[in-house]
Write a structure and sequence with these properties.
The structure is a homodimer. With about 270 residues, chain A is of the alpha/beta class. The first copy, chain A, has two domains: about 100 residues, Leucine Dehydrogenase, chain A, domain 1 (Rossmann fold, 3-Layer(aba) Sandwich); about 140 residues, NAD(P)-binding Rossmann-like Domain (Rossmann fold), CATH 3.40.50. The first copy, chain A, is built from nine helices and twelve strands. In chain A, strand 1, helix 1 and strand 2 form a beta-alpha-beta unit. The longest helix of chain A is centred in the last third of the chain and has 16 residues.
């Protein structure tokens, strides 16, 4: 349940295409109320062809205080920000934007923190794990950076789009923290497997990795929120793995989202 | 209270500038829930300079099913409609737009029905009343048409903008139903007085009519929703008049709004 809405309620939107799968509208709106904020987060389904026009208009809406970006708008939203956190600038992607005092947008990208937070909530220590990440897009690149910051010993990245995979690997290796290299769909030898692709949202999608080769000791996390349990997570559970779903990942970052959206200027 | 919001919730917006005074977001959203609809009406503050761009983008948002227009956007919203009810076409103004199956907007203008409905809810028979209307804008013109349709014997219209006043009078007289003529701020001789101007929203605003000349038998209605009781209505009550506020007028039209927004194609 949510508090009463009025003409004075401050507006936040989550944009994506599709948008029906998004968990944030209900959770963030309830969390606004829990913090005493008369504010709401509403879903807006914006096509790729329309997102530039949408962002142009959104910048001028007087009661719109923030934007949450989901697939496929996280990169274009970064371009619309006048400023952003260090991690968002490294990744060149945002999933959160809040209105600054000068009316412009300040961005952050916390999908990776959600992945790491969900693992910790399951009792998993990420440090020194050998990690395989599938998907080098917006969420994938953020998860990669967060895994490195959390201390994985090595990180392999699998993505059929070789250019974005190799570009991400190259940039991550400039950090000099973990060995980052090209991965495959074979999870043998890894004790952390992350899916950051949409494979599993539609019936008949291929699995992101060869689940017959998952070790029971491998922690498996997935970014998909709908279905609630993706085929990858279902298979990982059958293999005896500790798992976290996209909803677990979302839950782990919801309070961070609120902290960011409601922060004052000058704070990350 | 409202039901739980999700990414699949269908979106309706009310646009205006200002927007904080709008009653519809809470009321319509609760009424959607009462009808079993997973839908929400949210306030969006759009400046006059931005409304064309806003409407251009709104037409392309895939989960936006309707728009409620308030001051100052009711005329431009009519222009954005591919079709509209007879009364909206006569007035060339809309306060409601719903998405047709072909993706375009169908409009209606029910502010006048709200005024008449509020009067009836107060036990007032409008037939054969001598009416004075102040304000010939979007809401005013709709109230004028609804008063004529409800059977007033005469209608005087007062507005400092002579061109729009005279244009409205001329068009209303083509209906051949009631005698419509120019009015003044003097309510003597009238037994129905309607304020459709924003005079009274701000402290220090002039009163729309000379309230020292109100007859206790005159029914007084006002379109202002904030403050809850406008100075005009406060004075009319002191004079012994039966009154209705803008909120009464809003309440009278809320179910009509729902009927329109949720109707199928081909229905007015």
């Amino acid at each position: 349940m949510m508090p009463t809405l009025s003409g004075a309620t401050r507006l936040y939107v989550i944009i994506g295409d599709p948008i029906a799968q998004a968990r944030a509208p209900g959770g963030v709106t309830a969390a606004f109320a829990a913090r005493g904020q008369d504010a709401i987060l509403v879903p807006v389904q914006v096509a790729v062809a329309d997102v530039h026009d949408f962002l142009s208009v959104a910048a001028r809406l007087k009661n719109l205080d923030g934007i949450v970006a989901t697939i496929p708008h996280k990169f274009v939203c970064y371009e619309a920000c006048a400023g952003a956190s260090d991690r968002a600038r490294f990744l060149r992607v945002v999933n959160l934007m809040r209105r600054r005092a000068d009316g412009k947008w300040h961005g952050d990208m916390i999908d990776g923190l959600g992945f790491v937070g969900a693992a910790r909530a399951k009792g998993i220590d990420i440090k020194d794990r050998r990690a395989l990440l599938v998907g080098a897009g917006g969420a994938g690149s953020a998860i990669a950076l967060a895994l490195i910051d959390a201390g994985v010993s090595e990180l392999a990245i699998h993505d059929n789009e070789a250019a974005r995979r190799d570009g991400l690997i190259e940039r991550l290796n400039t950090l000099g923290k973990a060995q980052v290299r090209i991965g495959t769909a074979d999870p043998r030898g890894y004790d952390l497997v992350a899916n950051a692709t949409p494979a599993g949202m539609q019936a008949g999608d291929p699995l992101p990795v060869d689940v017959t080769r998952l070790a029971p000791s491998a922690y498996c996390g997935c970014a998909i929120t709908r279905p609630e349990v993706s085929p990858f997570i279902e298979a990982a559970r059958k293999a005896g793995c500790v798992t976290a779903t996209g909803t677990d990942m979302y839950q782990a970052q919801q309070e961070m989202m609120l902290d960011f959206l409601l922060a004052e200027d000058g704070q990350d």
